[in-house]
Every structure is written in C-alpha cells, then in structure tokens.
Automatic annotation (TrEMBL):
Belongs to the peptidase S1 family. Pfam families: Pro_Al_protease (PF02983). It comes from Amycolatopsis silviterrae. This is S1 family peptidase. Residues 92-145 form the Peptidase S1A alpha-lytic prodomain domain. InterPro entries: Pept_S1_alpha_lytic (IPR004236), Pept_S1A_streptogrisin (IPR001316), Peptidase_S1_PA (IPR009003), Peptidase_S1_PA_chymotrypsin (IPR043504), Streptogrisin_prodomain (IPR035070), TAT_signal (IPR006311). The keyword Hydrolase applies. The keyword Nucleotide-binding does not apply.
Amino acid sequence: MNSRKTLLAGFTAFSAAALAAGVCVNAASASPLAFSQMQAQSIAQAGSVADSLGAGNGGVYLVRGKAVVTVTDAAAQEKAEAAGFATKLVKHSFAELTSVKEGLDSVKNVPQTSWGIDTRSNQVVVKIYDAASPTAAAKVRAAAAKYGDSVRVEQHSGKLSTYISDGDSITNGQYTCSLGFNVTRGGQPFMLTAGHCTNLGGTWRGGNVTGAQIVESDCPGADSGLLTRPNGTGPGAINTGQRITSVGTPTVGEQIRKMGQTTGGGSGEVTSVDESVNFDVGVLNHEFGTTAHTDHGDSGGPAYDGSAGLGTLSGGNTQTSYFYPLSREMSSYGLRLA
C-alpha cells in the first residue's frame, strides 16, 4: 500500500501470562505499546467498577496511564478503593453531567461552539471560539449559566473547520481526505473515513485503490463515511505498521496516536468525551476532543491507542482536534475490523 494510506490492524498485546503474573508497567519507562496496553487494561477495569457504583459514579479519567475513579459519596469511594483504584470525591455524578450535556444539545444554530464532558474537572466544558458570532456566543453562555458549577465556559482562539483540502491520500479528484480504517461488512471489504468527506460525492482513489464508491455517508449529526475497496482486503495496518485489533473507548487523560496524510503521525491526549461540536457544516455529536495536531487533508484519519482504534478525524483548529468514535461507526454500519 502507499505509505500515505491509513489502513487497519494491530500489534500483539501483552501476553495473558504476563498480565496474570502481575507484571507492573512503569509509565515513565514503558514502551509505547506497553503503555497503550496499560491504559487499555486500566480503562476497562476502572470502567467496570465505575459502572457498578450507580449514582455514586462520577466517571473515570487517566493520570499517566492509570485510572482514577471519581465518586460522589463515601460508599462508592470505599468500593472503588477496595477494587484497587485511586479515587477522587466529586460533586456531580456522570449521569448528571450527561444530562446537562444533553440539555445543552437543545441549543441550536450556534456555529463555532462546543460542549462535552471532562471527567477530570467533573464538569461539562463549553468552548466558544473567536469565530463565533456575538449572538451565538451570548446564546450559549446564557444556556450554560442555567446549570451552575456543573458547567465551565472557556473562550478559545481561532476557527473550527472540517479538514478538507488538496493532498495525496484518498481523493475524489477535487478534495482530499485520509483513510481511517479498513473494515468489512458481510465479508466484503470497505474503507472508513469521515462523512463530511463522502458527502462531497464522486469516485475515490488513493494508493493502489481506484474506483472506490460511496455506500454510506452521514454528516452532520454523525461524521461517518464508508467506501468500497475494489482491490480486496489485504493486510491492514496504520502506515507505521501498527496493527489494530479492537475498538477502544476514548477516556479523558488517555494518550493517543493519530495519522493523517497532511501532518502524518503524532500524539495527543483526550480532553473531553461525548462532545457536541458546532461546525459550520452543522452539529457533530458524540465527538471526543484531543490535543493532537491535525490540519486540512487529515479528515477521516484514525486516532488509536496501541492496538485499539478510537475514531476518525472530523476537524478542529490549531489547539484541538475532534474525532468521531469508531465504536459508533462500527455499530451504525454493522462493520467488523478487517
């Protein structure tokens, strides 16, 4: 495959024997793969404990790859600590934050704003970008004020944009985006990218693939697009050689990797989950925000953590990049990893 083509697959994880033996991973000295596996294990185990806490669950976040379980009462704190996790006592449950976020979702026609859950601060964080009109900014601030200290409003520089521009990855002859993941449906091979790319229509090509047809395209709301892959499945791998074998759940504080045809590889940290982002093309729901640097032409490219795929790039600005969760794309289209 062309080195610019982003394909799917995954490195071998820690052996079950090593995990069973209680091998401890030092975050400061761990290899990238070992660190990713530590994060994945911590997220899965902490998530299971948090889910068992009911109203006492404030959510989970990571610190240097290790999970912190936030709790709203002493009983939940005792249970989480008994399971071996660091805890933080907070005011708002995760269910309450989700309800606040969904309440803000009723605010419409406010481009260049967003809101999502930051479990680390135990708040819904509202971002208003400089490009937002005074009317939109005032509308969002007024809505946020109704929820008291469960919401934090931040002013951000620049303008949010969905990343479509000339480049050399997958193109319909007019616009260029990046391929996210190779997937299958009903045993047939497909390519997953951003919906705001496939919304542009046309026949796509890139690397050794030509004549790729659009079979699914969802944007706004979601940001998913599915293309045929005429040349068959073949081995799937990020262009670094990294294999992806599972679908992960983005978690605040999680260290991730990304790939795109314009900016190439890079890293970042998840800063928010379940974010509603008001791009000029419309509202994209359930995005996760990151500190990864991306640019025009990277749209549709993958975010991943070791062998776990996390999402495909929607866009952002110079400080924040937003990705649509791979788990939602897989479920919506009935896909399997290639």
